[in-house]
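Q: What would this chain look like folded?
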Amino acid sequence: EQASDKKSFVKTLAALASLMNDSHVGLWNQHTEIFGTHGPPIGLRYIEDKICVARVHPDASEMDINRGDEITHLDDRPIRDAANDLSRMISASTHSALNRSLFNRSWIMFGEQDSELVIDTKRGSRKKKVHLHRSLAVGDWVPEPSSDAVSRRLSSGVGYINLDSVESSEEFDKALRKLRSCPGLILDMRGYPRFGVQWDVVSRLIDVPVKGTQFLIPRRFAGSGQHSYHWSQYEIAPHKKLSYTGPLVVLIDENAQSASEDFCIYLQNAHRVTFVGSETSGTNGNVTTVNLGSGIGLTFTGMRVLFGNGSRFQNIGITPDVESLPTIKGWLAGRDEVLEAGEKILLQRAKKKPADGSSKTT
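A: My prediction, written as structure tokens:
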């Protein structure tokens, strides 16, 4: 009621919605009304508790700003102070999911088109102030791309498939057939799948039926004040023609959300996987949309989601069995240290493989 215009009204709604602590929460046109429509020609990455330049657009190639430079200030204000203010209007299930939105997606740098942004950079003892303009629209700016191929056999003989890049179940099956003789398989789930990995991938990795996430959909009865939950839990059967039952590692981080996490829970319930990396987003379940009128809408997770054993999932996510975090030094050298950690684990397991060959492929 106190909002003087639509923009301040939407900001108030965003601050209220952020209290839901749900990364599925979003407001229609939130970038237009809250964060801004354009960003500068650089992208960020949160790594080793620092906010660094992840990549530089050709528009900024002559501005003496480099990949790996730490960002300390935005418009002469400490970047962490700016992050604290903006975080009050971002709903996030976990702290890592919040950092993903603020920094890895560069929301903290968005503003009005062609407006100026002054950043302070630091590399060792070298400090520099750089003037940039917000020239890239939100839709033009994408996260730092992965350098890994969709699938390949690593030099150690371990197989690798990037589930963030595979386009279909047919493409996955093709990759799996090429890698089925590998002594171990790494599935990269540090992102969001483009097809139904829960059904089309899990079924190729199990030899007995497995159940997944528990979903509780709330049902309310008008006028009575009573409510109940509709409970459901899906089961996946093994694929009849193609399977891989060798040692399996799944790489995870804060970019794994919703369908990605659902996929992980199936493999967790099947006792088929070692998770390597860092905690996932902690946001799963179908999205509910509410039209609030005047071109304003709200999305959020419309159900309660539990692990297969009935424990709380939301705001927790998948915790890695082996924590592995990238370092600035390794990242700048082009290394994928999380992948390296997963490969090391599989090689260790291959050495301990039973003599009867119980880890087999068909």
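The radius of gyration is 22 Å.
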